[in-house]
Structure formats: C-alpha cells, structure tokens
C-alpha cells in the first residue's frame, strides 16, 4: 500500500554533503523528520548547521550530530537519543552514505606509497561494515520496524576497476553483499534493504579521486541524458521507493544513473 512519508523519521549517515545532504533536504520537503550523523571540521559543521535550519524551515524536526558514524561508541551514545527524539516511533528510512576511504594504489610505483592493512581495514569498516553494525543496533533497539527502508549508496566501482579506487571498490562490493544478506535476514520483519547505484555524481568525495575530471567527462559523453547524475536524482529515488509499506523490493542494487551503464 502506498503511504505518506509526512511525520516519519529518517536517519542519514553522512548527512552534511553530497547525496546524504540532498536526500535529507528532499525528505524534509516531504515532511520527514531528519536525524543526521556527520563527521566534519569546523567549516563542515557550520555548513551542516545551515542545512539543519533550512530543513527546519519546512516545519520538520532536524537534529544533526557531529560524530564518527563508524564508531561503536557513537552508536551506543546516539541510539538512546534517537529513541527519545522519535518518541518511540522508530526510524522509517535509513540512508548509509559514508564516503571516507583511502585512494592509495595496492602496489605503488617507485617512490609512491602503497596501501597498508590499516588503511584497507578502515576503508571497508567505514564504507561497508558500518552498515551492518548500524542496522543490527537499530533493529535490536526496536527502531526498525515493518515497512522500514534501508538504503546503502554504492557505485559502479563495486564491479569495475580504475586507478586508485581499489580499496573503495572492495568496500562497495562488500557493501552490496551486506545488503543482500541483510535483506534476507530482515525480510520476515517486513524491512527492505537495497543498494542505490548512482551514476558518476559531482560530490566532494568524487572530487578527491585522482583524474575525476576525466572520469566525469567520459561519463557525461556516455550517458543517454548527456549529463552527470545529480545528488537530487538519488534523493528523488529514495523518496519514491519509500512510499510503500511493502518490503517486496529488497536485496537489489538499483541503478540511479540515467542509463549510464547501458552504453
């Protein structure tokens, strides 16, 4: 059954920029209350505070927390706060949009650093494994209930390779595997879990990838729409897919790329 989102709650992990921020804005316009977790310096915190007030301008509650979303202590501290803020209503939508990882090559050229075990573990823990830990704790706390939707942001890099993207590619592949397993285990509870595979999207995290300008130009030429994916495209997909109590669309990697991979 199609339902209204107004009055429900959304938790966005990685809420201060890129797709996470766009999703939070879109859902706030739809009347969804926002819980945002981000990990920023002073400048980023100021931007997050501005975004929070803009969301509140739509008449919803918006609460942002500057904390390491990959930390067990953060979950331990924030889950009781989330329960209090939602008034026991639970979280209807969870968005995992954490983009923090190393871009070092596995085997560096002469004079170039190579990826270390610590950097590999950190990248997978933040960008992939943290989805599992947040979902576990939210479910155990009773904050994920029938009709809830969990989304993880992936990319074509989960199945393709490019220079400097090895650890992130591994994280995206692991993330998609986690989505499938969570979908299997949460199906009896009526909770849907999906990965959204955005096309090449201009975000702060993309700009850190060496050669991102060439990647963007190539993707723009290939895309049937002759433009790059925008964070707002992904935000609209989350809004659309969340308007049902059904959990029958689950365990998928859903392309939100304007047909970029078709060509």
Automatic annotation (TrEMBL):
MF (Gene Ontology): oxidoreductase activity
CDD domains: SDR_c (cd05233)
Family, per entry: Belongs to the short-chain dehydrogenases/reductases (SDR) family.
Keywords: Oxidoreductase
Gene3D superfamilies: NAD(P)-binding Rossmann-like Domain
Lineage, opening ranks: Bacteria, Bacillati, Actinomycetota, Actinomycetes, Kitasatosporales
UniProt-recorded name of the protein: Short-chain dehydrogenase
InterPro entries hit by this protein: NAD(P)-bd_dom_sf (IPR036291), SDR_DHRS6-like (IPR051122), SDR_fam (IPR002347)
Organism field: Streptomyces violaceusniger
Pfam families: adh_short_C2
Domain of life, per lineage: Bacteria
Keyword Cell inner membrane on entry: no
